[in-house]
Amino acid sequence: MKIFKIFANQYFWVLLIILIGLLVRLYKIDSPIADWHSWRQADTAAVTRNFIKEGLNLFFPKYDDMSGSAEMPIVNPARFRFVEFPVYNISVYPFYFFFGVSDMYSRLVSVLFSLGSIAFLFFLCKRYLGVFSSLITVAIYAVLPFNVFFSRTTLPEPTFLFFSLGMMVFVDRWIWPACNASRSDAGREVCGILGFIFTAIAFLIKPWAIFFFLPLLYSVHKKGIKGFWKKFVIFSFFALLPFLFWRLWILQEPQGIPASNWLLNGDGIRFRPAFWWWLISERISREILGATGFVLFTIGVLIKPKSGNYFMHTWLLTMILYFSVFATGNVRHNYYQYIFVPVAAIFFSQGFLGLIKGIPGFLPRFWTIILGLLFLPLSFYFSWTQVKEFYKINNPVIIEAGKMADKILPKDAQVVAPYNGDTAFLYQTNRSGWPVTALPLAELVADYGATHFVSTARDDKTNWVLRHFQVLEDNPKFIIADLTKITIPLNGDPEP
Fold it and tell me: Where are the transmembrane segments (predicted)?
């Protein structure tokens, strides 16, 4: 009898799903940061590594890149990295401190946050969809290939999503105390406090936490108590204060704030045919849900909720708003859609369950069950055919060259590691410097303190370096040269 009680316990299944989610996320957990979107991963990981190398200073996070934009190539010699408040990096720091710097620990922390997101998604769905539907939803969410890959990257997104979903769970329970595990005022206050903390942290990490906050306005509206709006506005104001203070703080070092206006509609792609093609056809239909999964998702969207509560549909609309506002960012970078996956999994599961239960006025239930059971595994297969390429190391040579540079160069070396502006190569050297030679090398040496040159390309600039500077390592794959030691005068041989 005890075994049946265990199987009947909803939390047994949640824990089992989380365990499965952990196991699939351990695939290539020790992979170096040279896979898909390695440039952004390297920038994030470098901040934590520099906390170890230079001291933990949360208000002045630094990465390895000393360069700036194409118009102003050298604008950040202090290497400030003022983007999100380094909550993720703080979480990785203890692993680095006690066990040593390793990319595996950065990935592991992301995995742990993503597992917490599974739990939060279950509790959120449980209130609106019921236990069984919620279990199906989180099971799908836990193993979607797109979600699995980005849940173990060294990006702030898994941490951000954890706090955003936690914000939704706790604030929604604060709004609706009758849905709390405890109906007491004390239980509601606890949810309010936790909601406040998660809201503040979510916005500190990324301002587009607003797109998770907007559905909560629907909850307040649905509550229908006018006096509660005042309380909610006060709650929101104080929860946003840390974000406002952080944004005011970083303005004192504008060179450390990457350009971001282009994310909105920098190339004018918003609502153009290419915008819809990239987001719907390539990202949502192929990478995230697979072709058949998108069919299930669409069916789920069209099914009217039995409760008459459109909280989930409101959430979906805010995600569409997110795509529209940050149009260029979403088209150029597919990791921007990572925060869309929870709501995608919700309607994916509702579409699947709709086919299993049968849809009045549609095909006979016999056929809808067959379609549901066919579409579900095909969705994962189609998605995996796209996502499996993300795990591949794009250029293994940069890892080999980086290890050699780290071995033979002084710890305080400032390295020029040209890689089309991609900092993944510079990160592998474990040194600060420049991922592009936007200025002449002689100028980088004289004015900005560059000391060494590392390259995996045998282009004109590399050959010029070989002719004029002392070479420390020269093999068919890469070269390492000392820019402080000239072997042949530069006169008469201009730098390409």
Answer: 6-27, 105-124, 130-150, 159-176, 196-220, 232-250, 284-303, 310-329, 335-354, 366-384
